[in-house]
Amino acid sequence: MKILVATEKPFSKQATDGIAAIAKEAGYECALLEKYTSVDEFKAAVADADALIVRSDKVTADIIAAAPKLKIVVRAGAGYDNLDLAACSARGIVAMNTPGQNSNAVAELAIAMMIFMARNQFTPGTGTEISGKRLGIHAYGNVGRIVARYGKAFGMEVTAYDPFITDAAVFEKDGVKMASSVAELYKNSDYLSLHIPATPETINSIGYDLLMSMPKGATLVNTARKEVIDEAGLAKALEERTDLKYITDIIPATASELAEKFGKRFFTTPKKMGAETAEANVNAGLAAARQIVSYLKDGVTKFQVNK
Ligand code: NAD
Q: What is each CA distance from 199 to 58, 81, 159, 226, in whole angstroms?
């Protein structure tokens, strides 16, 4: 059995060493394709792979077609919108993610982003504090829950909304209030931290109306996905409401226009960096390798996303 690790943006050495060790212990071969510059390189490398580990690399129907032996592909990370699930399913290939492995890294960045905006992007002048402010968590998954915990530690009043969690007790046990709707959440959040996945229902779902409903001086923090933002609606709201701010870890399609028009009320990281910590790198890479071994040896499909 051969595991291919195909990463345009490589894992750390500690992570690849760990993956190789897990493969070796299972009696498998492990190959690395790092910093590849063409799809053809990826296709050639995957030709004899039984298992594939990727990060944000796109596993398209073309890649799947070029991998006749492939049995499992694991996205080392949370969001798996880079995997063509239909193409995997059509071939009976199991697709997985490694949920929770990078959540702390993303949650720490979300809190850092709030403070960065509260302090005028670390430029001179009087800022504000996040303590005592209302924090809204949109989607209470792995990242959202940690942001809620850290928000409370900073003295924020935390409310959350998740369409798949209707039992208020889930929030209450964490000292978090449950909002009854998306509209209610945005209306009452000085900081709104987005943690929804990019799905047909969520794409372009955060726009003008929700932003306009936010309290004076509110900040929208996006460490989730750029696709969930209706950028035209966002720009219109920022134009009409000069008190609103937007900070994101996923470069908007219209980033240069937003930067030019809205100055210090807008910020994007130059490259998605939420999960870019040594710890998250290692956690996600090793989890991916372990999940592959569990599946190939024992048929464990716990984290399968194309069921
Ligand atoms: P998760 O799967 O643990 O949680 C997602 C939550 O979203 C779940 O609680 C689910 O019930 C909820 N949800 C599903 N559909 C929804 C909908 N239509 N509306 C509202 N909520 C919905 O995911 P996570 O690990 O917490 O990741 C959250 C987001 O952060 C994802 O978009 C992920 O892609 C992104 N992410 C970004 C980075 C980064 O580097 N910036 C790293 C990891 C994850």
A: 17, 8, 23, 12
DSSP letter at 12 equals: P
Closest residue by CA, ligand 1 atom 30: 224
Q: Is 126 exposed, middle or buried (0-12, 13-18, 19+ CB in 10 A)?
A: exposed
User: Which tens digits make up the pLDDT trace of 49-64?
Assistant: 999 999 999 999 999 9
CA distances from 101 to 10, 33, 39, 62, 283 (A): 17, 22, 27, 28, 5
The pLDDT tens digits for 181-204 are 999 999 999 999 999 999 999 999
Q: Is the CB of 143 under 6 A from ligand 1?
A: yes
Element of type H or E holding 53: strand 51-54
In this prediction, residue 307 carries a pLDDT of 83
Locate the ligand 1 atom nearest the alpha carbon of residue 249 and give its number. 41
Q: Which atom of ligand 1 is nearest to the CA of 223?
A: 41
Residue nearest to atom 35 of ligand 1 (CA): 224
φ/ψ region of 299 (left if φ > 0, alpha if ψ in -120 to 50, else beta) reads: left
Which is it for strands 266-268 and 134-138: parallel, antiparallel or unpaired?
unpaired
Q: Which of 75, 140, 162, 222 has most ligand 1 atoms within 8 Å of its beta carbon, as the pocket-test mutant?
A: 162
